[in-house]
Amino acid sequence: MDPTLRPRIIASLKDEIGRLAPQLRTAAKYVIDHPAEFGLDPIRKTSRKAKVSTYTLVKMAKNMGFDSFDAFRAPFRDALLAGSPAPTMATWLDDMRAESATGAVFADAADNALSVVHRSLEHQHPDALSAVVDTLLGAETVYLTAVRSSYAMAYYLHYVGRMALPSLELIPRNMNSAIDDLNDARPGDVLIAITITPYSRETIEACAFARAKGLKLVMISDSEVVSPELSPEHSLVASVRSSHHFACYSGMTALIESLIALLMDRGQQEARDRIRSYETLRLQNNAYWREEKT
């Protein structure tokens, strides 16, 4: 099997997804977002996970030039067999699981967190990450937006990242909308948007508004296809699979940490001087608790 076939199929799906009918678009997005699961699962299981009919999956296979669903799935399965194995559960987690019901729940959550970090980092490419850093450092102003649980990721990226990227601005400010704060943005500025499924309406509208104003767009999300109408310059994709109802942000946190590390490295002495100045300022203003000496 041609090892380049799976990435070519995914690239073709990304190109075509905006022109597909709604059900085919849903199926295509599932394949793009979950290539490993798609390679492993039979058609009925894929149908249930993707929330489309088996007929839609067969129709998508035909549209992609394959005789059957199995033929369409084959390149994804072959890529799994040729690739690196998934990380296995650590022995200490097995021991924890065997101790009690609480230990079992903890082991599931811990194993999931370790797995999503691995999955979120293993598919990143140095050249793509370097291009993101170039885009951020080359902009006069870099806006950063997110809402609800994703806001925690944006807040941390802003709090630490501005040491190396002083042009970084977290929006919305002062209870405004992100669009309000983008009103003065200019072509050449950058918007970093963080959102995961189900995607925030406010964030998607801010992205569309930014694109209309000529801003470059960097998406940090759980998919390369957040909306077919958006065409970001860069997409950083993290797994948010969880053992509970809500998303697990361990993988996205690790990805953001990597981005911060690259910004710090490129900032070199200037970034280190800025960090030192903040630390000095906090010490001078008693920002940190100190135990009273007796």
Calculate Rg over CA atoms: 22 Å
Count of helical segments? 13
Task: Tell me the number of strands.
Answer: 5
CATH architecture of the largest domain: 3-Layer(aba) Sandwich
Structural class: alpha/beta
Please render the helix and strand layout as text:
Elements: H1 5-16, H2 22-33, H3 35-40, H4 43-50, H5 54-63, H6 69-82, H7 91-99, H8 101-122, H9 126-137, E1 142-145, H10 150-161, E2 168-171, H11 178-181, E3 190-194, H12 201-212, E4 216-221, E5 234-237, H13 250-284
Helix pairs in contact: 2-5, 5-6, 7-8, 8-13, 9-13, 10-13
What does this structure look like?
- It is globular, with a radius of gyration of 22 Å.
- The termini are far apart.
- The protein has a five-stranded parallel sheet, sandwiched between helices.
- It has two domains: about 5-80, Orthogonal Bundle (Arc Repressor Mutant, subunit A), CATH 1.10.10; about 125-285, Rossmann fold (3-Layer(aba) Sandwich).
- The protein has about 290 residues and is α/β, with parallel strands linked by helices.
- About 55% of the residues lie in helices and about 10% in strands.
Q: Short description, anyone?
A:
The protein is α/β, with parallel strands linked by helices and 294 residues long. The protein has helices at residues 5-16, 22-33, 35-40, 43-50, 54-63, 69-82, 91-99, 101-122, 126-137, 150-161, 178-181, 201-212, 250-284, and strands spanning 142-145, 168-171, 190-194, 216-221, 234-237. The model has no long low-confidence stretch (mean pLDDT 90).
Sum up the structure in keywords.
single chain; 294 residues; alpha/beta; 57% helix; globular
